[in-house]
Specification:
The protein has 471 residues and is an alpha/beta fold. The chain has helices at 52-55, 77-82, 95-108, 123-135, 150-154, 201-206, 217-228, 245-255, 273-286, 295-305, 319-327, 365-377, 381-390, 398-403, 405-410, 438-450, 455-469, and strands spanning 8-11, 36-37, 85-91, 113-120, 142-146, 180-181, 184-185, 187-193, 195-200, 235-238, 309-315, 336-340, 354-360. Helix 3 (95-108) links the parallel strand 3 and strand 4 (113-120).
């Protein structure tokens, strides 16, 4: 998520920085050619462990935005004159980008007031706030939605269909499917991420492991065995389970064999052969040593600072920050590589995405036109580029990608992930009153499997629990 982007149609407003405290297809991606970055440098590490979260924060850079396309992307002059107020809902960590949108719209339309509601601390909390405010008669025009919550926005919250044809030609149309519910375009993906396997190349080379072998779970386990017997006193692999990583990894692996943990009918499918094969990998990986809970304060610290683990899992949006964190260790640094998370054997890349989308909730025609203009302005190429430099989400705009050439020269490991766009799979979105609880419940079952619980029994229990929650 990006913050601190200041924007204005057709002009540049400088000196606003990006700030964010959040750490927040089927076409196979060749991993053998994944780029590597030598991160060792001069300097020392100090006696106290550094805070990895600081490296995952954004880089300071100003950004410009504006609606460039004359057709379809601007509100009509009639509506621009008629609308005096727009209401924008987002989470608190996106408050600064919301203020940027407010400044842009109010400058472009004198007399317009953009009211911001930024008190929610999570996407789930924001959805609940929208529901409560709607019941109290408070109108919302635009809101940010977690990709997994889009069905709720399409149904109970009344999000309007938003045609991708209203976007700039440079918007990556391969991503719009992540914002579709029942064939309707409910949201426009703004920030999109997936999972990465990150490795210490120095350790792999000493163990005789070719990074090109890490395309499948079989290759990863073979590499882990070589590392375990190489005499380096390093844990071969760490798969953090916090922040619901456990169920995300399980789903990504099952998806690689064509069976994500949620079927097209919306029902759970946690007891499939694909889920079982994924669970078997996770159980085996866990036998190589203790697996972290928190991906940052434990996983990244163990991998990037203490050098206790040879391979770990990170999100793409935190990858550039994680590489910087390793680089900042100075002489303690090492060569690090990153590849898209491996598939099950004979599988293909179909990674499960996570992130957010911009939605329009306004129902009045003119309110909707103005709300759409705000959405389009927040997807301007320079905003997307600044976002990617801040937190390394997949860029959703091709012009932004072109502007990011220096960034990808700095972090060449990231380039392979941009090839995943056509193969990304939407995250599960569970129905039912207890549906929002289900990701964590599934994650808890994955943790049990990694702790040694019987796989078949645990997956059966997870399926039964999911079915009861999803009603």
């Amino acid at each position: 998520m990006i913050t601190g982007i200041r924007t204005l149609r057709g002009r540049t407003l400088r000196n606003r920085t990006l700030r964010d405290r959040t750490l927040r297809g089927r076409r196979a991606v060749p991993v053998a050619a994944a780029a590597l970055l030598t991160l060792a440098a001069c300097g020392g590490g100090g006696s106290a462990p550094p805070d990895p979260a600081r490296s995952l924060g954004p880089t300071a850079r100003s950004a410009t935005t504006g609606v460039d396309d004359a057709t379809g992307s601007k509100a009509s002059s009639q509506c621009a004159a008629a609308v005096r107020t727009l209401r924008l809902y987002t989470i608190e960590n996106l408050e600064n980008v919301a203020r940027s949108g407010k400044a842009a719209m109010e400058k472009a339309h004198p007399g317009l007031t953009v009211e911001l509601v930024t008190s929610a601390t999570s996407y789930a909390g924001l959805a609940q706030q929208l529901s409560t405010d709607s019941a109290a008669g408070q109108r919302a025009d635009v809101a940010v939605a977690g990709l997994d919550l889009l069905p709720e926005f399409a149904g109970r919250l009344g999000a309007q269909e938003l045609s991708p044809r209203l976007l700039r030609a440079s918007y990556d149309q391969r991503l719009v499917g992540l914002g579709q519910i029942g064939g309707r375009q409910i949201g426009i993906p703004q920030q999109v991420s997936t999972l990465a396997l990150v490795y210490n190349l120095d350790v792999l080379e000493k163990a005789g492991v070719d990074p090109g072998s890490l395309t499948t779970t079989a290759g990863v386990l073979a590499a882990a065995e070589k590392i375990a017997t190489s005499g380096q006193d390093v844990q071969p692999i760490d798969i953090p389970t916090g922040q619901q990583f456990g169920q995300w990894v399980l789903n990504t692996l099952a998806s690689s064999k064509g069976a994500p943990i949620q079927g097209d009918d919306g029902r759970p499918r946690l007891d499939t052969p694909q889920a079982r094969e994924a669970a078997q990998f996770l159980a085996k990986a866990a036998t190589y040593g203790p697996q972290s809970t928190d991906p940052t304060n434990q996983g990244l610290l163990r991998f990037g600072y203490r050098k206790e683990t040879a391979m770990t899992v990170m999100t793409v949006e935190s990858l550039a920050g994680g590489l910087k964190f390793i680089q900042d260790q100075g002489a303690r640094g090492f060569r690090a590589g990153a590849v898209p998370f491996p598939t099950l054997p004979a599988g293909r890349q179909a990674p499960v995405a996570r992130g957010n989308a911009l939605t329009v909730l306004a129902t009045d025609r003119c309110q909707r036109e103005m709300a759409t203009e705000l959405v389009v302005s927040l997807l301007a190429p320079d905003v997307v580029a600044a976002s990617t430099e801040s937190l390394s989400y997949l860029p959703v705009d091709s012009d932004a990608l072109a502007r990011l050439a220096p960034f990808y020269r700095q972090y060449p490991q990231l380039a392979a992930f941009n090839e995943l766009a056509p193969s990304l799979v939407a995250p599960p979105s569970w129905a039912g009153a207890r549906g929002p609880e289900l990701p964590q419940a599934i994650n808890n079952q994955v943790v049990r499997i990694m702790g040694g619980a019987d796989i078949d029994q645990t997956l059966a229990a997870a399926q039964a629990e999911a079915e009861s929650f999803n009603q």
